[in-house]
Automatic annotation (TrEMBL):
The organism's place on the tree of life at top rank: Eukaryota
Annotated InterPro entries: PGBD
Full protein name: PiggyBac transposable element-derived protein domain-containing protein
The PiggyBac transposable element-derived protein domain, residue ranges: 2-325
PANTHER family hit by this protein: DUAL SPECIFICITY PHOSPHATASE 26, PIGGYBAC TRANSPOSABLE ELEMENT-DERIVED PROTEIN 4
Species classification: Eukaryota, Metazoa, Chordata, Craniata, Vertebrata
Length: 431
């Protein structure tokens, strides 16, 4: 699709192959690991201030051409598929999210929350979320493993199904979609999702729920909603056969309500603030998606763009790099464990492995001496073949009267000699 769009829109377009596309992705990955997501390409390719690996991989103009032409579907066939707002990116998104679920089995604790991909361009389903740092962007529902923050299932929110109809119980629908096919897990979510109806439905699917709940829910007992004249750090519990509700006062006038189908006893911590165990468990598990946002943003490869599928594509790369790191460290637990920056080492190695095959096949050397040296070294390494070593058996020394059996031979005449009939010389004298 990129070649199709490039031939239509960019004069003098040269078709891109899989190897060059991997090199392009590798440059995006390396720009993220070098914390250069807000740095201009002119600076990245600068001979004085930039990094030589960018100039060694491809020219700045070629990088711009690929960025302009990168597409994920055929625009001319879009009217036939226009019922879906995600049409320009739907095929790639479905392939990617299907692979995420296949490669990892989440632990017992699962967190469901929302993620915002920063984007201020034109997009029919762009959202405004004032509590998020970016505020404007594309909202993604995410289900993450609490222990590792692995993004197990993701779903893009494309707005209302019908413009004139309000979606009822959206939070419940999202959690059920995010946990479909699972059993025996504990789902943690905030008050946007939590309700007694959701807890009942999850119990039918053999899953438990822990989450904060809003005070306007009609099923809440009235005595749990009263916060006036209550002692600070006090807790009130309410029980049914399957549900547990707790009301906790962390400070004067503040009432925190939680619903749980995991806990069955009114346990309270004996430490200073006397928090209920339900709240402590919720605090341990609520940050799965938030931690994913934090680690993904640390080495993000996002570049400025006005095309929303590109913003999603950059987010796909960021999440994929983190998920790959989780899988790699689970399989290779001994991989540089003593280093605190091993995720940075992992991403850097991934970026280099993506660009190296393309660098080794470059036809012309870059003008920069540093970039030319990178190309020359990789080309020499790719063309070098290991010498074939022939192992020789022991034979008799040709100068000894007692005919000792030795391995060593003379470097010129190749006669077998022992230590007594051989001389050691340095490299300079041997020339």
């Amino acid at each position: 699709m990129t070649n199709l769009h490039g031939n239509r829109k960019i004069p003098g377009w040269r078709d891109i192959d899989a190897e060059e596309f991997r090199a392009y992705v590798g440059l995006l990955v390396l720009s993220g690991v070098y914390r250069s997501k807000h740095e201009s390409t002119k600076s990245l390719w600068s001979e004085k201030w930039g990094r030589s690996i960018f100039r060694a991989t491809m020219s700045e103009n070629r990088f711009h051409h690929i960025s302009r032409a990168l597409r994920f579907d055929d625009k001319l066939s879009r009217p036939q598929r226009h019922v879906d707002k995600m049409t320009p990116f739907r095929k790639v998104w479905n392939m990617w999210t299907h692979r995420l679920e296949m490669l990892f089995s989440p632990d017992r604790d699962l967190c469901v929350d929302e993620q915002l991909v920063a984007f201020k361009g034109r997009c029919s389903f762009r959202q405004y979320m004032p509590k998020k740092p970016a505020k404007y962007g594309i909202k993604i529902w995410a289900a993450c493993d609490v222990k590792t923050s692995y993004a197990w299932r993701l779903q893009v929110y494309t707005g209302k199904a019908a413009p004139d109809r309000v979606e009822v119980n959206q939070g419940m629908r999202v959690v059920l979609d995010m946990t479909e096919g699972l059993q025996g897990h504990v789902v943690t979510c905030d008050n946007f999702f939590t309700s007694c109806a959701l807890a009942d439905e999850l119990l039918k699917r053999k899953m438990a729920l822990v989450g904060t709940i809003r005070q306007n829910k009609p099923e809440l007992p009235p005595h749990l909603l009263q916060a006036k004249k209550r002692e600070i750090f006090s807790s009130i519990f309410a029980f049914t056969n399957t549900h547990t509700l707790v009301s906790y006062i962390p400070r004067r006038g503040k009432n925190v309500l939680l619903l749980s189908t995991k806990h069955r006893r009114p346990d309270v911590s004996k430490e200073g603030k006397r928090k209920p165990v339900i709240i402590e468990d919720y605090n341990k598990c609520k940050g799965g998606v938030d931690n994913l946002d934090m680690v993904v943003g640390t080495y993000s490869c996002r570049r400025r763009t006005n095309y929303w599928p590109m913003a999603l594509f950059h987010n796909v790369l960021d999440v994929s790099l983190y998920n790959a790191y989780v899988l790699w460290t689970l399989i290779e637990s001994s991989w540089p464990k003593q280093k605190g920056h091993r995720r940075r080492l992992f991403i850097e190695e991934v970026g280099e492995m993506l660009v190296n095959p393309h660098i080794a096949k470059r036809g012309r050397l870059p003008r920069s001496s540093a970039a030319a040296a990178v190309v020359t070294n990789l080309t020499a390494a790719a063309s070098w073949t290991a010498p074939i070593i022939q192992f020789k058996g022991r034979r008799q020394c040709e100068f000894c009267k007692d005919k000792r059996r030795v391995f060593n031979t003379c470097c010129k005449c190749e006669k077998y000699t022992c230590k007594d009939h051989s001389v050691s010389i340095c490299n300079d004298c041997a020339v």
